[in-house]
Design a protein that fits this description.
The complex is a heterotrimer of chains A (261), B (292) and C (315).
Chain A (H helix, E strand, L loop, with lengths): L3 E12 L2 E12 L3 E5 L6 H8 L7 E6 L6 E2 L5 H7 L1 E3 L12 H8 L8 H6 L2 H18 L17 H14 L4 E5 L7 H18 L2 E5 L3 H7 L2 E6 L2 E6 L1 H5 L2 H7 L6
Parallel strand pairs in A: 3-8, 3-9, 6-7, 7-8
Antiparallel strand pairs in A: 1-2, 1-4, 4-5, 9-10
Helix pairs in contact in A: 3-6, 5-6, 7-8
Chain B lengths: L1 H31 L6 H18 L4 H24 L7 H23 L4 E2 L8 E4 L2 E4 H23 L1 H11 L1 H6 L4 H27 L1 E2 L5 H14 L4 H21 L5 H15 L14
Antiparallel strand pairs in B: 1-4, 2-3
Chain C lengths: L1 H24 L5 H26 L7 H18 L3 H23 L7 H21 L18 H19 L2 H11 L1 H6 L4 H27 L9 H14 L4 H17 L4 H18 L12 H13 L1
Classes of the chains: A alpha/beta (261), B mainly alpha (292), C mainly alpha (315).
Chain lengths: 261, 292, 315
């Protein structure tokens, strides 16, 4: 444990009269795998959208500790946040669906391997060198989920589970230090879910990532998360280890009738 | 001051014609989110129907207006049924391109049959003018403004007080939910096209009387300007389209009157770009955000 | 693999060039045919540059003729004063740069717009440009510029078009081109992987406008006469029809579409309104039955053929 990767201070977001996220304070340690759970409509995805700049917070602050200096990300546009080192997947898959699997990953490497406009018009030596690197690294990343055999297929022609995998690969291709996963196991069966949970843990350690994970499948959350935050009606109602959360009265009340813990 | 008031009078008469056309854009856009590029050409056809009805039948003003409105309503329904309905689930760009196609088809089919030349309306209404304190009111101008206001009042009644109007409002808010409530979405969309096209047909006859000359390409510019009027008023909003139409009419006559008529069209487009940037929702529009 | 593709492309170009040259030398192709070839070149470049904006970056533009007109007028004004090859080169560069600057000027304020609003805004910009040319003294208003020296022949045009299309194609097959495509696919996802979508929207407009400017310059230096009316909404729609017919997002589609439609309109030139009726019906029919155009987003290449073969054998 070497300090925090990300801290969130009193973060609030309201849409008109509705407060979707209210006064949330949390932190993700470097190399930590943290879960975020809560009933439907609790504001989990909104919190992710705030962390990645899709929405600007109404108040509060988000700070990343990834470079030399801590960096406040309040009001930063999404593409800059991505450059700071935060990547995400989407709950309702948002792949570049009419592009190939390989292109989906290559696009995400936009900022990690660069060359200028002139090189792109004239296909200089630098272009070929960099493109070769991009392709090599993209295929290596696709190998994590065995997608390296499907590089030329269109993203939308992939089966559902593989689309979720591709979203994770695309996020990894931005070379993040913090990975936000929004329900990565949604719609998967039991064995696929277990496999995914193992892969997430493996990715986390091999790439030295901090992971923040929204998930409805409690078996995943309880088995791989080191700590869990619970959100209900936009308010954090609990945090702690899986064991603590399992026996927390407030959490049980929030979930009553919805899921058994 | 006299010049100023004169421009206002002229602007209001052109503007009320734009407002009638703009209503069709705004209703259709409100319901199926489509810029019906062919709408300006329905207005052109309305002008021609009025022309043929008064020259060959020969009908007087009101029967010709009615005939033009009914024919345009039918035409609008046919266009929707044949060209737009099959594409309702297609990407937006596909529908927009189809709309451009329908517009070109109407213009050049018309040109093929009636020739590219200009035709002149005969004087359907008295050409008397009244001088009130130096400001000149034409009988035609007054008739145009009154006709336009009456038609808008009828429209407002249909939209607010009738069952079909209620269905239109429901479909524009949420088509799927309206369908579940037992509203026929297809019929409602058809109805909106008919209403809008009837008003465009009326505008066509009025403009024929006002400028007394018509041609197959006359619909393009007023069509675009009426669309701009609808955007300015807040697309989807019926009162917005009325206000927008009048505003564009006045803007245009002022630019032509005080500046140069050469810059009239440019001024309107410039105005559009300013609105789109400064208040994309328009005067009375709503803003929608995308769910992530 | 890159090499093989390039050799094939150069070989194809050389073959087409030689074929036209032979036909021209033997007199089978007269000056009427040469004019058609020139028009095909101009339309190809216009279509490819619009495809970059609309087909690849997904930004619907109905004002492409406006960009073309800036290139055309700038080039014409320069070569009238310096009627030489150098003057032409200067005119071409000045025209395409001016056009690119206007592309920037249009790209920046319309950034927040999309879809049909953007279409109307670009249409409006092109109309404004047209009105300006109508009213400027230096462009001689509605009468336009006449007796522009002809400094182009079909061979020059062929090379300029081939070179420009190759540059556009190179751009598309690069990290910058892919960034443009990701905007078309999903703006939010695109931003989430670090792409500055504002930058690339503007870049697409500026680059598209630049090449439209070149085609305008070619037009000015070949057809003697420029009038603002040439560059109206109909011309913009003409270009859009080519792009849509060929396939939004396919350069080879635009090339084939330009050749096809220019030939059709050359054949129908004595029946102007019939031509437009056919255009209109074609637009509607394409959208109904093959909205992806002839080629969709595919490019004609050997890879496409082998993929198609594989698909067949898989059945």
């Amino acid at each position: 444990m070497s300090g925090n990767a990300l801290t969130v201070e009193k973060l609030t977001k309201s849409f008109g009269g509705i407060t979707a996220v209210s006064n949330v304070t949390l932190h993700i340690g470097k190399g930590e795998l943290v879960g975020l759970i809560g009933p439907n409509g609790a504001g989990k995805t909104t919190l992710f959208n705030l962390l990645t700049g899709v929405y600007a917070p109404t108040s509060g602050d988000i700070t990343a500790y990834l470079g030399e200096q801590p960096k406040s990300m309040r009001g930063m546009p999404p593409h800059k946040i991505s450059r700071v080192g935060i990547a995400r997947t989407f709950q309702n898959i948002r792949l570049f669906s009419d592009l190939s699997v390989l292109d989906n990953v290559r696009i995400a490497m936009h900022n990690s391997i660069e060359y200028g406009f002139a090189a792109s018009f004239f296909h200089t030596k630098r272009y070929f060198e960099k493109e070769a690197q991009i392709k090599e690294q993209a295929i290596e990343l696709l190998g994590i989920f065995g997608l390296d055999k499907k590089t030329d297929e269109l993203a939308r022609s992939l089966p559902y589970g593989e689309q979720r995998h591709l979203e994770i690969v695309r996020a990894l291709a931005t070379k993040p230090e913090i990975l936000l996963l929004d329900e990565p196991a949604a719609g998967m069966n039991q064995s696929e879910t277990l496999e995914l949970a193992e892969t997430i843990s493996a990715i986390k350690s091999s790439y030295g990532l901090s992971v923040f994970l929204i998930e409805h499948d409690m078996s995943v959350v309880m088995s791989i998360c080191e700590r869990i935050y619970v959100l209900d009606y936009g308010v954090l109602i609990a945090d702690g280890t899986p064991e603590e959360i399992r026996s927390n009265k407030k959490v049980i009340a929030a979930y009553l009738g919805e899921e058994k813990l | 001051m006299r010049m100023f008031l004169q421009q206002v009078v002229n602007g209001l008469s052109v503007g009320s014609i734009y407002a009638l056309i703009a209503l069709g854009y705004t209703m259709v856009y409100g319901i199926i989110k489509l810029i019906n590029f062919a709408h300006g050409d329905v207005y052109m056809l309305g002008a021609y129907i009025g022309y043929f009805a008064t020259v060959y039948l020969p009908l007087s003003f009101f029967p010709a207006l009615l005939l033009s409105m009914v024919s345009c309503a039918l035409l609008g329904a046919i266009i929707e049924r044949v060209a737009y309905r099959p594409l309702r689930q297609s990407p937006k760009i596909a529908v927009l391109i189809t709309a451009i196609g329908v517009s070109l088809l109407l213009e050049y089919t018309m040109m093929y049959f009636v020739g590219a030349g200009v035709r002149s309306y005969k004087a359907l209404l008295p050409t008397d003018t009244y001088n009130v304190g130096g400001v000149i009111f034409g009988f035609q101008q007054i008739a145009i403004i009154i006709t336009a206001i009456a038609l808008m009042a009828v429209l407002q009644f249909i939209v607010l007080k009738t069952k079909m109007g209620k269905a239109m409002r429901a479909v524009s808010i949420d088509a799927d939910a309206a369908q579940l409530m037992g509203i026929s979405v297809d019929r409602t969309i058809s109805f909106a096209f008919m209403l809008g096209s009837a008003l465009a047909g009326a505008a066509g006859v009025l403009v024929g009387i006002y400028y007394s000359s018509i041609n197959p390409l006359m619909g393009t510019m007023p069509g675009l300007k009426a669309f701009i009027a609808a955007v300015f008023g807040g697309i989807g909003s019926i009162p917005g389209a009325m206000v927008g139409g009048l505003a564009i009419g006045i803007l245009e006559t002022f630019v032509a009157g005080y500046g140069s008529s050469m810059y009239r069209d440019a001024a309107v487009f410039f105005f559009l770009i300013v609105i789109l940037l400064a208040m994309p929702g328009g005067l009375m529009g709503m803003k929608r955000t995308e769910k992530v | 693999m890159f090499k093989a593709k390039n050799i094939a492309a150069v070989a194809l170009l050389a073959a087409v060039y030689t074929a036209i040259k032979i036909l021209r030398l033997t007199g089978i192709f007269g000056s009427y045919h040469e004019i058609t070839i020139a028009q095909i070149c101009i339309n190809m470049l216009l279509a490819c540059s619009l495809n970059l904006i609309t087909g690849f970056a997904g930004q619907f533009s109905l004002g492409h003729a406006g960009f073309m007109s800036i290139g055309a007028y700038a080039c014409a004004l320069i070569i009238i004063r310096f009627p030489s090859v150098y003057g032409f080169m200067l005119g071409l560069i000045a025209g395409s740069l001016a056009s690119a600057v206007v592309g920037l000027a249009i790209g920046i304020p319309t950034l927040r717009l999309s879809g049909d609003y953007l279409a109307i805004a670009t249409l409006g910009m092109a109309e404004i440009i047209k009105v300006v040319f109508f009213n400027l003294k230096i462009t001689n208003g509605a009468a336009g510029l006449m007796n522009i020296p002809r400094l182009m022949n079909w061979e020059w045009m062929f090379c300029l078009t081939a070179g420009s299309v190759a540059l556009i194609n190179n751009f598309i097959n690069s990290r910058h081109g892919r960034a443009c495509m990701s905007i078309r696919e999903d703006e939010i996802a695109s931003q989430s992987v670090g792409i500055d979508i504002a930058l690339y929207k503007i870049a697409a407009f500026a680059i598209g406008a630049f090449f439209a400017g070149i085609s305008g310059g070619m037009y000015a230096a070949y057809f003697y006469v420029l009038k603002p009316g040439i560059f109206g909404l109909l011309k913009s729609i003409d270009i859009l029809v080519i792009v849509v017919l060929g396939g939004l997002g396919s350069i080879s589609g635009s090339i084939i579409g330009a050749a096809l439609l220019t030939l059709i309109s050359a054949l129908l030139q004595d029946f102007a309104s019939l031509r437009m009726i056919i255009y209109a019906l074609m637009l509607i029919a394409i959208m109904m039955f093959r909205p992806q155009g002839l080629l969709g987003t595919n490019e004609i290449s050997f890879a496409l053929f082998t993929r198609a073969l594989k698909r067949e054998s898989a059945k």
